[in-house]
Task: structure prediction
Amino acid sequence: MKKGFDSNLYAQLQTEKILQRIEKFNNKLYLEFGGKLFDDMHAARVLPGFAYNAKINILRALKDKTEIIFVVSAGDIERNKIRADFGITYDMDVLRLIDKIRKLGISINSVTVTQYEGQPAADVFVRKLERRGEKVYIHRKTKGYPTDVNTIVSDEGYGANPYIETTKPLVVITAPGPGSGKLATCLSQLYHEYKRGVKAGYAKFETFPVWNLPLKHPVNVAYEAATADLGDVNMIDPYHLEAYGITTVNYNRDIECFPIVRSILTKITGDENLYRSPTDMGVNMAGFAITDDEAVRYAANQEIIRRYYKAACDYKQGLCDASVPQRIMLLMNESKLSLEDRKVVKPALEKAAQSGESAVAIQLEDGRFITGRTTSLMTACSACVLNSVKALAGISDDMLLLLPLVLEPIKSLKKDVFRADKDKLNLYDVLTALSICAATNTLAQAALNMLPRLRGLEAHGSCMLNDTDMGVLRKMGVNITCEPEFASKDLYIK
Result:
């Protein structure tokens, strides 16, 4: 895909902006950090050229000044809320992120469990952390929130929360997902800092919507599509327009809660004009690093269509209600997009119709469409990936890469040991087999070497893929979508 974003420029501008905001608040800033620290694939898809680890790299550059507090809602722990892109619960994601960040040399301050009301699962999580030597703080629901500012900003409100000891100029408050309590934790800390005579500050870092792009720019529309299940709606920031006469974009939740946040900040700091708009609170500089608007528009439009397919599949599986795909289809209509604009869909459906089996198609960098169908040996996804790496390596389609000597033990393991109902080789099985064959087969090694070239490519399935195939494709960086159709009549599919 043609690049339209300069990640190096973005890192430079973003670092400078954060440092300026730290300086503004006497070298103590609480930064509410939204989105993903690692693997921000949404940003990488809608802003081609965006380094998917750009945000953590910025913090890495500022590591001498930075410490991180993770917050997670006790309610989300109790409900076993899942981070969809990794398929793990929020509490487990916190542990994963702590491990990854520590390896980069960035300081982890603590974990704060918010909105605590005695949830048993939250208690287990706290004990698990404490017995591993991690600092944990408990925040209960804030008395008086959201209307009684005098109670909120008092010892009965934020003052009832324990103060989190920090030592660095930049304190990043982040979470595995939305609604975790990042803002409340920031404001609680701000209250305690002012009680101690420290005039600290607050700022917000959200990549989307991009405040200095037009309201209906595809990048901002793609954000609406990505958050359709949350009901987020992009809006012109009326407070910024009134204060400065400049049109900027924010989203409904930030705009709706701004009067409350402004009142709380004023009560804490005594400064009525600390921030005059939700946009003022932000530090995001992504919009200034776009180098090719046409390329970015195309990429974002493709993401809108991908989001529709995901929502349609989620609805089919009972994971969301009908309003979510309907909302995204309305966004597509407003943007004059159709499902036919996703070019990889047609070859997948045609292959399925021709073969009478489930099929998957991948579009290579040179524009070629490579397909694969379900066989007695392997899934459609496995066949398609295998055919794709053969095509990239210039290996004849008739050439056998996977030796029966390797495949049969894998099938036997699945059937006889694991007692699997189906012994078809999924993508993980096939790539494992290819790796083994590569030890003695130069052609298999050549095909294996092509796997990194699949990253960023588009793929589509004629039906919903199994969890293993979907997970492996995501790890490989393939942008997979599926028709909202089941592969079989079986109720239990894994």
